[in-house]
Amino acid sequence: MDNTAFQKLKDFISRYQSIGVIVAPNPSLDQMAAGLGLFLVLKQMGKNASIVSPTDVNVSLSSLVGIDNVSKSFGNTGGDLTVSFPYNEGEIDKVSYNLENGKLNIVVKAGEKGISFNQKDVAFVRSGSLPELIICVGVPSLSLISNIYTPSPDKQVAVINIDNTTNNEKYGDMVVVDTRWSSVSEQISDFVTLLEPQIELDADTSQNLLDGIISATNNFTGANTSYLAFEVAGILMKKGATRGKALSVVNSSRGVGTNMPLDNNFFPNPTKINRPQPVVTSPVQPRPVNPTFNPNVVPVNNNQNINSAPVNPNPVPVQPQPQNINQMNNDNSLPEAPPDWLTPKVYKGSTVI
User: Fold this and answer.
1) On the CB side of 141, how many CA atoms lie within 13 Å of its CA?
2) Is the dihedral angle over the CA atoms 309, 314, 316, 320 positive or is it negative?
3) pLDDT, greater one: 319 or 28
4) Which of 21, 123, 222, 280 has the fewest beta carbons under 10 Å from its own?
5) Which of 164, 293, 273, 174 is nearest to 216 (CA)?
């Protein structure tokens, strides 16, 4: 945001005390986060701020700070109340009212075709009590918020239009539409950080805006991600916002587990990684060893008693070999010693020292 636009927007906000923020129907996380971020800053500035959306708040956005302040219309007291319902030619004959037991009953008399709409199609819209300044965040056309605000020549309400879409109709007394931004949360972040030191951006507001940026840029991996997204995100993290919490909020808004990353292609799901599988082979069976045939060895059958094994009738005698001098002869006498057994032995070597 250039200095001229910033100063003009700051002057608008300084001029009015009653300021309303409007986000689009069925807002994205980015749009709602940006609207709430601006709403919290206006409250911090001491403004009589309010935030509305034409549709009910989706439960997926409930993690954003200040979400309980979002309503469907401006002003809970005063102003006009309009009861609206679908109209098709020939279905309604006339409309009247009566008072009964302290209640005003509006009677819609059916025509020849009969009434086709149901109770859920009846809407109650409170007009009047509009703020002096309305800031539309991420609303490309006023027709999207006609049940909240419709321009009227007899009501002097200033309108600021903040958006980053190409189809914005450029309405309002001040138009801040720039498609270079990846998200409207970046635009609001850029503005509120320039307000310092008039206000000190707190961790809750910073977290909302970081949530919106991460959602709009798909965790900074989207093709639309601008360099401004990284710059602004760095400032918000310095103010206390954390990416871990932002990812948790974004994942819950998309209906996935909070531990799952935003982009499964960028951060693969461990359950879907094609890991190499181990090769399973059958165990190698040892080759049977064919021992050398020995006719004197009698095979033993494990299932047969060893005592009943057949005996070779013609065994080959094995001559025992004496192992030492003390081994006895067959007649239990000692063998005769060599003649030089008791003669002293002298070593004779050939090595000369």
Assistant:
1) 4
2) positive
3) 28
4) 280
5) 164
CA distance 232 to 238: 10
Mean pLDDT of 161-178: 95
- To the nearest 10 degrees (0 to 180), the angle between helices 29-44 and 184-194 is 20
Q: Which residues have C-beta within 8 Å of that of residue 300, sequence separation ≥ 6? A: 306, 309
H-state helical runs in 134-223 = 184-194, 203-217
CA distance between the termini of the chain: 104
For 82-140, the pLDDT digits (tens) are 777 788 888 888 888 888 888 888 888 888 888 888 877 777 666 557 899 999 999 99
3-72+130-271 sits in which CATH class? Answer: alpha beta
The residue among 83, 81, 106, 82 whose CA lies nearest residue 94 is 106
- By residue count, the chain amounts to 353
Q: How far apart are CA 56 and CA 22, in angstroms?
A: 13
Among 244, 165, 180, which Cα is nearest to 210's? 244
Beta strands in the chain (DSSP E): 18-23, 48-52, 70-71, 80-84, 92-100, 103-110, 123-127, 133-137, 158-163, 174-177
Three-state secondary structure call for residue 246: helix
Nearest to 76 by CA among 21, 130, 18: 130
CA distances from 8 to 14, 56, 222 (A): 10, 32, 32
Two tokens at 214? 């991460």
